[in-house]
Amino acid sequence: MKKLTHCLFYTALAMASINVAQAQMRVEISGVGSNQIPVAVAGFADELLAPQQISAIIKADLDRSGMFKVIDAGTIADVNNIDYAGWKAKGADALVVGTVSALADGRYDVRYKLFDTVKASQLSREDQSVPGQAARMAAHKIADDVFFKLTGVRGAFATRIAYVKQEGGRYQLVVADVDGEGEQAARSAGDPIISPTWSPDGGKLAYVSFEQKKPVVYVHNLATHARVVVANEKGSNSSPAWSPDGSRLAVSLSKDGHTQIYIVNADGSGLRRVSDGTGAAIDTEAQFSADGQSLYFVSDRSGGPQVYRMNVDGSDVKRITFAGSYNISPRISPDGATLAYISRRDGNYQLYVMDLATGQEQRLSDSTDDLSPSFAPNGKYIIYATEAAGRKSLAVVSVDGRVKQRLTAQDGDVRQPAWGPFLSK
Predict the structure, then answer these.
(1) Could you report the per-residue pLDDT of 193-215, keeping only the tens digit for each?
(2) Confidence (pTM)
């Protein structure tokens, strides 16, 4: 029981030395994907009119993905007459061009085209009229379109992440772009905030706050800042996780003496217990499956913490992880095919993934103190918290382990990442 109690509160205790960084994140990239696609990105005509340089953001997004070999195309005078053979000779299979113009109402018209130099054809075009503060997001959306048109996989550059910072005795729940830019504090408090998780529509965050001098689960509306107490039972209230339709949350409560899994409506009503509480076992960290019909969770019923799966009514419990004696923090990929989790082996806490169809697992991280994995909504990347050389930071890794990034706050440490869903167009 002590081991799994450590699992429940490990995150909160590990936050003690986090510092808030007022500056944006620094991104370091290592590794590349197999078969990188060479794509040339030209400077957008008149892009200096906008608050953000559109082409630079697109290049950074594509480069960070590890899927592309980005070629600087300089500036192209006439974007309506493309020298396909010339760009192909320069090694580019695709070419991105665009323009920016200022509108009378203060917005900016951002136009982009994507060309296939091999087939000498236009692959895509998009026009956006955006306010100045949305110029960065417009660039992310263009990068998403390039990613999709060239790989067949939806890009996730225009999504958001949430994470926790601490400065002295103040804690912040932060929302930012996936590259760490555009930080906004959703909540600031004098007591710990842990376990943020996004609602499926991206409009709310559920999290655990200690402001009542005990862990309580809240749902926070990001637009209105209104909050709802979802779970404030006797003892510990922890580990919120949304159902795929956003109507319910799984939570871990110790109201009956030892921690068990419950399901509650998003407004705090309809609380019901799901796990059976076998013996003195602790059941916690439940996550809904992609189809919402089952729950993956952590239990020490076998002696040490392992990942199990059960139906949402608590029936048909099956153990999922067998390698290693300590496996926690299960997260399911959006397609339901892959399980990510933290495993302790040889004294190291590291990120692993498992193919649920075959049971084959793979270690994705080289660090020794990993926490809080979270899948990108396209299922191709995982963000997690880690520590290296005494510095707490966030890291992103592709699910094949080839591409790795580290996001470090320039003036402090960050923890508890959660990758948000796709946003509506």
Answers:
(1) 999 999 999 999 999 999 999 99
(2) 0.91
Nearest to 328 by CA among 306, 303, 351, 361: 306
Query: 120-153 burial by CB neighbour count: b if 16+ within 10 A, else e?
Result: eeebbeeebebeeebbbbbbbbbbbbbbeebbee
Give residue-wise pLDDT tens across range 257-268.
889 999 999 999
Whether 84 contacts 115, CB under 8 Å: yes
Structure tokens at 222: 């990001």
Is-same-fold flag (2-24+159-419; 35-151)? Answer: no
Long-range contacts of 45-51 (CB under 8 A, 24+ apart): 45/75, 45/79, 45/98, 45/99, 45/100, 46/99, 46/100, 46/101, 47/98, 47/99, 47/100, 49/100, 49/101, 49/102, 49/108, 50/100, 50/102, 50/108, 50/110, 50/132, 50/135, 51/132, 51/133, 51/135
Among 2.60.40.4070, 3.40.50.10070, 3.40.50.300, 3.90.1150.10, name the CATH number for the domain at 35-151.
3.40.50.10070
* DSSP SS3 for 290: coil
3-state secondary structure of 191: coil
Looking at residue 416, its amino acid is Q
DSSP conformational letter for 45: B
**Looking at 16-30, 191-205, 221-235, which range is the least confident one?**
16-30
CATH architecture of 2-24+159-419: 6 Propeller (2.120)
Q: Which of 331, 260, 340 shows the shortest CA–CA distance to 300?
A: 260
Residue whose pair of structure tokens reads 């909050």 in the numeric block = 227
pLDDT tens-digit series, residues 56-65: 999 999 999 9
Tokens of 360: 């084959």
End-to-end CA distance of the chain: 46
Q: Are 44 and 99 in contact (CB under 8 A)?
A: yes
